[in-house]
Design a protein that fits this description.
This protein is α+β, with helices and mostly antiparallel strands and 359 residues long. Helices cover 26% and strands 38% of the residues. It contains 3 helices and 24 strands.
Amino acid sequence: MRAATALLLVPGMAALSGCEQRQAAPQKQPVRVRVAEAALEKYSPVYALTGIIAARTETNVSFRIGGRVAERLVDVGDHVDAGTVLARLDPQEQQSDVRSAQAAVDAATANLTQTTAAFQRQDALLKQGFTTRRDYDQAQQAMQVAQGSLGAAQSQLQNAKEGLGYTELSAARPGLITQRNIEAGQVVQAAQTIYTIAEDGDRDAVFYLNEAALVNMPVNPPVKITLISNPSITAPGIGRELSPVIDPASGTIRAKVSIPNTPAEMALGAAITGSVQVQPVESILLPWRALFSDAGLPAVWIVDRVTNAVSLSRVTVLSFTSGTVAISKGLSEGQQVVTAGVQLLRPGQVVEIAAEPAK
């Protein structure tokens, strides 16, 4: 009987022992975090964009007449001077026009010589009374018609010579050939673009920027241009042109920055960066580690000063810099923001604020 009673007491004692162990388990310690107090500051973000060096003026050159290309004398990448012949058309048709026009001039000259002599003879006879006024007037009229015919023939000859000159395509200004659209033997039309020339002179830096970047941007701000391949090469730039429309494909706006006295190292097509410091705005600066994601939107953890419980607050990011994020909306001055330990938190969780390490 005593043995049976002892066996019955064993499970009960085991249960009491388990309760004592659960009661003795230590309570979970609150998560230790570091915080920073939100404070408004005047912040002047620096925007840096990547762009390229482009010619300030690009010229499309073309023949004034159509014809078959006899030869092309330059190619992409060649530098040309003003007056350099770029290409020639087959001049046979124009040479034939010149010969025909010259023949017409010769005939008109001979006719004028003949009619002038006839008029002079009629003029002498009229003064002596040996001819009629009608013959005199007819001779004068024939001479005047011959003079007009000679003038027309000479104009046609001049046009034919100009047409022959149009078979040569020359550069109007010095520059670099950036595009070629012909081959020898190809038939081209008048005004068809043959070459594109980037004219010598100061260059432009071309950027494509987001519309939001223009919100606090001053008018025609000074821009620091830096060559990516050699950051020691820099040049000051001045905003010159801003496209009035947004590119529907990229959603960006084209901006051109003039570079006076462009360094020789900044060749056409070179990759560069442009840095602009915008107008100062009031914002709260926090370490980038303070940022959290709330349904895909930027947010930070706020610590209640009374309960030490945390809550998420969505924020608007003004800009990112190296190790720092500028917050423009979503925080109030004096709030405690978690800057370390954000990945361990959940809404309403009580935290322990760790002391800042001694400096």
